[in-house]
Every structure is written in structure tokens, then in C-alpha cells.
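Extended Data, panel c. Modelled sequence:
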Amino acid sequence: MEHYFIAMVSSFSDFHASFDGFTSDDESLQVINAAGSSFIKSSTNWLDELSNLPSDWALLPLNGIKIPFNPITNELMHGWSNHPGYSIDEIQELSPKAVGVMTGPISGGLLAVDFDGPGSEEQFQHIFNRASSELPVSLSWSSGKPERRQVAFTVDQDWWNLLKGKVIWKNTQDKTILELRWKGQQSVIAGAHPETIGYSWLAGCSPVEFAKPAIAPDWLLMPLLLKAKQKHVTFSSKEDNSRALAMLACIPASEFSNYDSWLKVGMALHSVDANLLNDWIQWSSKMSNFDENECDQKWNSFGNHETPVTIGTLCQIAVKYGYKAKNSNCASNLSNKLEIKKANSVCADVGLIKWPLPQFAATGLVLLAADQGIGKTSLLYSAAEAIQEGILFLDHIPATAGRVLILQGDESEEIARMKFRRMGLKANFDIVYVNSALDLVEVIDLIISEVYSTIIIDSLTTVLLSAKCTTVDHLLVEKLYTLNREASNHGVLVLMTAHLNKTGKDGSGNRLERRHITWADISGLNTIGAAVNDCWGLTNRAEGDYSLHCLGKRYVEKGTEWIIEGDPEDFSWRLKAVTDGLKPQEEAQAKEQILNLLKISENWMSAQDISKSINQNVEHIRRCLCRLFEEDRITRSTENIVGRGRPKHLYRIKN
């Protein structure tokens, strides 16, 4: 089911307080909204146009002064908030002077905000720390009075039971200027208005252009969240419980053993039902640092949190591990604006991977996640030098030469220059010392210009985040998706560092040492992982040695681990070994051996045949063959072997 967020008109109490002295104001139709769209002229046929509204909206007949009434008895409709509402056909048959829509679950999840006069835009900016123009473009309309408008959005069902009835903000004259409404409220959307010639859709924002409202950003819902002290009763329906437990079953406990991520899962379960403690304990028991007493203690404290973690948070985590939300169905109708083509009608080099740093970073967005002070910035400087000069990275990886730009937000110019000197870098790459968060457009302009083959961002937190966009904001994930798409399309590597959540503490109160990094360790929403091509974690391994391990995503195989050595004297890095694999240079040599063998072979050859011929581990050869095939340097076929299971792949040089 889809759900909607609608901007509301003023409350009945405000209406009655200001009704005296109403005058008609035809000039009010010339008002322009915040985005600059003028109003469509009010239709004399507004009842017919209701057919374009979403069919699951519960409507109410209104008199000419915005109050629900019964058009048959011609009396006010007392207790209308408990009424099931009317359908579009019923409203058209009743022919009231105006029509309102009921908000809350009764209309599929309608929630409301009203920009109600002078000062409303400024109030919005103050509350949300962003302009209303940052709202997605969607269904929008107005009564025609100056600085009044309403907008519609889509809201996820997981928020429904977390929201209070309404929130209002008033000016110094005690008049409501901004309002969010939810259950038990209603909004006038069409027909007569007591001061103007009636309600009108904003140009380009009517139900003709938007059959369904756009998705509401989560930050818009924050003021309506119930505080824990107000939530005397948490979710306890069987449906919510079963959904939460289905989500929990998808989440691997082994990847949530650090304190913050473990706690987040518990808080989310508690928000659903305080009786799910045993389920949390059973899930937590799979962790190596499991402590049942701590589970009990933390569970009893969750109700004191002012801003509770919700089932929505649990859903975001679970989706990452394969959970399918009920309301995640895609629209059934494709826009006729989409360019639909045959999947095989592609250019010859499609699927070929471009590696500025072979087997470490392909074009697109790649994250390097590590704790503070471990040396990830000096590792990035080494990568920048290797690409800029076309030399070896980590003393083993042949970088593809190209121009490099660093956006440095974690270090001052003085510290960076000290490192360049200590590392003995030529430092011919370009660098910008970022003092405040960059606009996404600025970064994209750098990408699409294709001046730089590689853009290094240190770090995600200091360069891309701001008061308007934090690590727990879905806007950040949208930014990363955009960066990844543009970088991939333009063949640019964007290599970015990311900070980590704090680890838990041992019995002495000391922070536990992190041996390996998982997606859950990265600070922010788990959906960050879906917005990047690949991600590497960097952790201490032994004295002077570090583990550089891939969390897996697109181009680098999950579980790939490089043992690298750091030199504190000159901040240099060197690749010592690859766990269960070949070093990039060794792999390059093996690939050349394979190509040379296939060039002189008259027959198709299997991985086992090639392994024996060049005396290499068969699994290493299999990986090399897969990469050569992806690079379109060899071709393959299958040979079905009766009684021996899956087909065997055979390879030869491409003609």
C-alpha cells in the first residue's frame, strides 16, 4: 500500500478566531509559491476533477467555511473524525460546496503540513534548518491567499504508530503559521474558500501531473515523532511483531557485535513491543561477546530515550540483508519517457572494468573505512601520488596514470604539507582544503568535467555532511548514489574515506580493538553500502602490519584481504601478502601466462588444464580467467559432462 503526506489548511480554532471581517481578494490568485510556480486558474468543474485524486483517500463534504457537514440533513457533521469517509463518486453525487480529505491511516497514511501565511517559510527554515524548496516537487495547491500553499508526499507505513496527532508553530501574535497534522485531522483540497474564489492546484503540480505524491523525506516527519515518555504503549499488534521478527531473522548477529549497532537493534525491537526481550537475547547469544545481564539492563533503559529508534530503523538494516518490505513494490506502469531497449543492444566494451588502481579501485565510488588515527589519509596520499605519477601503489600495484584532485576536509594545509614532506611525495596532484561542506553540484561539476581521472575525498563527514545532511539522513545516501552514478558514467574514480562507529567496551571499560570492519561498523545508515561500488576496511593486525580487507559489493570479491605494512618513519605503505590469493602484480603475470598459453593452443582449455600447464593454483587461475573474460580478452564455452553436475567452462583466446 502507498501512503501520503499532505500539507494542511489552518485548524478550526484558528479559522473561527479569524473569520470576522473576511473580504474577497481576487488579487491573491497572483501569489507565487516558494518554487516560483504560479497557480492554475480555479476550475468551475472542480467536482469532475476529483476523479484524478488517489482512490484510497477518505473524503468529507464541507460547507463554504471549511467545516464538515452532512449535505443530506444540512447539519454539521459531529464526530466526523470517526466517520469512514466518502469515496470520490459519493462526493460528486452529494455536490458539496467544498471537499476535504481525512488524514492518518484512514486515507492510506495521509500526514500534513500547512504553510499558513507570512513567516511560514522562515519558520520552516528555522525548524528544519533547510529551505522548503528542498522538498521534492509533488502535488501542491493553495486557497489563493498570500503565502499559503499545501504539498503532498508519500510516507512509509512503519512510521504510522510513531506519530502524534499534530504539531503547530505560531508567530509572536499567537497565530498559527506552520502546521503538521496526522490522525484525526482533515484538509480542504478543492471547492469554495470563504475569502477567495476557491482552491487551485499549483501549475505542474496537479493530480494530472502527479498520480501519486512524491516520497516524503524522513526529516520532515521528525517533529511528529512521539517521545518515549509519551509512548506508554508501544507497538504490540501481531502484524508488527511478526514483521519485526522477520526483519531480525535476516540480520546476521555476527556483524552487529559492536556496542552501537547491537544497541540499535535492541532499541528498534523495544519500540515495537517491550515483550520482545527474549527474542533480542536469543539473537544476541550468537555473538562472541554475548552478555545476557547486559541485555536485561539495556532493555529496561530503552523507554527513557527521548528520540526512540523505530521499526523503520530495523527495516532499513534488514533490507540490506535481503528482507523484502511489504510496501516495496515498484510502480506497475512505466513512464512513456523511459528509453526501453533490448538488453543486448549495447556497445562492444560494455561490462569492461576500468581500474585506476588494479584490483583495488575501479571507476565509480569506492569507500575506505577506518578508525581515526590509523593512517588512512597517508594511504590516500600514496594512492594519489601513484595515479598522478603513473607509478606503483603499495610497491606492487601498477596505477593507471591520470590527473588527481584531493578534497581535504580532515586535515589542515600545514599538517598535509608536513606529511607530503615526510613521505617524500612530489605532490603534483591538485588539492582543495575544504573549510565547510561542499554543495553536491560542485563535486558533480568536477566529475563531469573529466579533468580529473581520480577525485579523493577525505572525508565523507567533513566534505559532504552539514547541519542539513547528517550520516543518518537519507539525503546522504541519495548524494552517494548520485556521485557513484556520475563517476561511473564518466569513468572517474571517487575514492572517499568514511568514519566508523565506536566499538564496545571490555570489562575494564576500555574500548575493544577492532580486528575486522563490517558494513554495520560504518557510521550512518546501512543503506550507504548500497550506494557505493566497493568498500575497503583498514584495521591494525600486528606490530607494523595492517589488514586491508574488502567488504564486497561490485568489482572486488568480498573477503579479499591484503596484508600491508606501514612505516612510521616515512608514512609509506607496502603490500606484504594477499590472503588466499595473488598479489596484483602476480595476478597480472599469471594473466599474461594464460594469454600466451591460449594463443598457442589449438584446443579449448579448462582452468584445470591451464593450472597444470603453468604450475599455478587452480582457484587462482579460475579467478584470472573470470577477469580476462570480463575484460573481453578471452572467450569461453561450456561442455556438459554427463553425471558430473554443473557444466565445465572451457576457454580460448578471442579472435
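The longest strand covers residues 534-542. This feature is highlighted in the accompanying rendering.
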